[in-house]
Every structure is written in C-alpha cells, then in structure tokens.
From TrEMBL:
Residues 1-27 are annotated as: Disordered. GO terms for molecular function: metal ion transmembrane transporter activity. InterPro entries: CorA_cytoplasmic_dom, CorA_TM1_TM2, MgTranspt_CorA/ZnTranspt_ZntB. This is Uncharacterized protein. The chain crosses the membrane at residues 355-379, 399-420. GO terms for cellular component: membrane. Belongs to the CorA metal ion transporter (MIT) (TC 1.A.35) family. It is a multi-pass membrane protein. Keywords: Membrane, Transmembrane, Transmembrane helix. It comes from the Eukaryota.
Amino acid sequence: MHPDREETVGNGEAEEMDEGLKEDTSLGDIPLYRPRFSGMVRQKAYIFDGKGKYYNKDWDFAEPKENEFCWYHVELPKINQKLPLFAQCLIDILCPPLKLQDILSLVSNGPLCSHVDGALVFRVNSSGPPTSNYTFRLAARVTENSVITVSLGRVPRLGFSPMSESLLSQIPAVETCSIGGTPSHHGGDGNEGSGIVIREHVLEFLLTMNHSEEADNPVPESVSNLVVHIIDTHLDHLQDITTKFEMELDSVELELDKGGFALKKQMLDDRRFPKMHLNLQRILQVIAHGEQVFPRVKEKCSSKKWFSSEDINSLEELIGRLRRLKENVGFISNRVTAIQAGLDSWQAEQINKKLYYLSFLSIIFLPLSIITGVFGMNVGGVPWTEQKNPEVKAGFRNVMFVCVGVLVLVLLCFLFPALYSRIAAWRRTIALKRSWSLNRRSYLKRTLPVKERDSYIRL
C-alpha cells in the first residue's frame, strides 16, 4: 500500500494488515514508516521560461531546458505533530533526488545558511507549536536552475496564479450587516453598476496589508528573482501578522478603557496579556533568525554568477525592512508590558483595599482583645473584679468605656493624616484665592485710563 493512498482503519483491520504483511511480504518490502498526514501535504511545482511566463509542472524533478528554471514548494499541515513525522513526510516526497542530509537541513529548527551538497540552503524555522499562528517555518534549497521550498501551512501570496482586475482599481461599495442581519450596500449600486462590493472580512484583510496588491505576485525571470520573491513574501507575511496583532491590541485597549471590574478580572484570569507577550516573543524569534540568515544569504549569493546585482540590492532593502519590523515589534511588546503592569497595579490596589477593610475590622476588635487579654490574666489585684473592693460592681461598664476610649484614640490616629491633608489643601486654596484677588486689583490699577490734570500727565 502506498503511503499517499493510505486510509484510516480500525484496530482490527490494522492487526489483519500486519499479519498479512508478516505472511505475504518480505522484510525488504515492508514500509519502515507510514505518514499519518500524507494526504494533507500540498505540493506545487512550476516551471518558468525566463521571459515572464510560468506553467504548472509535474512533480518529477526533471532537469529544465536552457534558460528555464523550476520551483518545487511543499506546504506542511499545521497540526500538532512531532518534528520526525514532518521529516518522514518530506523523505517520502523529496527523496529522491534529495539526500537525507538535504531533507534534514530543510526541516530542522533554528536558523541556517550554508552550502549542503553543492546547493545553497537557508531556513528560518521557529520551534513553537505548529498549530500557532505565530509559528513560522520557511526553508529553501537554491541551485542554478531549481528552487525547493518548504513552509508550515500556507504562506499568503507565495505562489502564483493568474490575476484578474485588481480589487483596488475601482471605487468599491462596502458590504455591512443591518440590524435585521441582512447584508446591505453603501455607496450606490455596487452590484448593478461598474463598481464592486468588498465584503467586511476582505476589507479587514486589506487593512493589514502594508504593500501594494498589484505587486504581490510578479512572475520572476530568473532564480535570483524567485529567491527575492520568496524572502519578500515571508517578510510580507510577518508584517501582516504584526499589523493584525497591533489592531487586536488596539481593540483590547479600547475594551479595557471602557470595561470595569469584571472585564479586568476576566483578562487577568485568562492571562490575556502574558499570552500576547509570548506570541510577540515568537515573532521576535523568527525576526532574529532572519537577521542572522538573510545577510549571509546576500553574502553567499553575491559570489554567484547567476545572481544579479539588482537582486542583491533588493536583498539589502529587505534586510533593512526586517530591522525596522523588529523595532516595531519591540514597541508593541513594550505596549503589552505597560498594559500588563497597569493591570497588575490595579490588582494590587484591589488587594490593598480588601486588606485595608480587613485591618479596619481588626482595629474595631483590637481594644476588646487587649482588655480581654489583660482581664483574663490569672493573677490577683485586677481592678473592677471585686477582689479588693466587693462593693464595686460597675466593672463591665468601665471596661466598655475603656474600649471606646482606646477605639477613638486609634481612629484619631488613622484619621489625623486625612484631616491634616484636607486642612492643608483648604489653606492652600485660600492663599491662592487671596493672591489671585491681589493680582487682579493690581492689574486693574495698571489698566485704568490715565487722568490728565492741568495738561500734566500723572505718573
């Protein structure tokens, strides 16, 4: 059974299949591995004529003709699987003609830029969970007439497709939902006229783009153009994810400003901002890998005859763009840290308030505990206990008076700073009003019209 056509079977059928393999199949014919997601892997192959045209190609790794070059792309599924299973799937797809060393260099974690078996191999693979939207994996093997790339999931705009008229070339009508739930169009007859209708989710996607839609998929005319296109698309993907993250952070800040106690407590319980900070660190890790890899790619490609000088300059611009993206992600990380610090201070303030109420309650019972401690001592001569003078029978009343006196004294100690601050603020207000009135009087005296007496000006 071929691994690509394997179907899921039950435990009983699997046991029967194993028994059949043991009886009818020799040891050399038994498959050593069975990829669990071989049908989920997407494969794309293109051949370029070097004149701005491309065609779909069979997955055969055949050598192209003169002035032609090929591109083979593999998209691994975004599922929770270990790294060896991804490697097994790539071995099934790319071997032959690639060797095990080439395949492991494409699927391993971390940054890499080196020559492997005569080809230039570079990768920027992060080690996060594959299902996360902030885990990026992109590796490429470049030769003079072919490029092989491996990515985790679909990278937007990485492939090529015949594009019709651009969505941004006309004045669109935006589709919104009315109160009843039916879609409505603003801006005229969007369906009947020459205009087009932009759906809400498409408009949200366009807001995250920091590049021109018409320049997304230029067909490369050389291998160097294709390498620049792959790196540029990778940076576009990082930029789009960062912009979307920033928009999400803006909406969270707006909700936090409008929300009250329940919303802040929910965010703290959900650990919203620590998770956002972790995702930012994953993006920063991929950007750091790119800062290590792409300058070395430019350095190694500059010595290749088939790599044009214009594409070398394009790589230099992409490296500068990556550094600016790193600064932007650093600013966003500082914003998340500041918001988290604000929530932590708010939580500490709530705890301090509860502790203040608890301490105030303990203050109320403090005199009673002191009195009970004193009068509970098992010694003689304690006052108001009818030991020395049996005629004194108002001991309980006297103890209550002592408790009230101690309580008033403690409360005065607590309230004195507040009263002092209020009195000081009242005195400052009176002083400011007095100085304002004096200044106003002096200003009025200076602005009064000058009276002349006997043709002399009074000074």
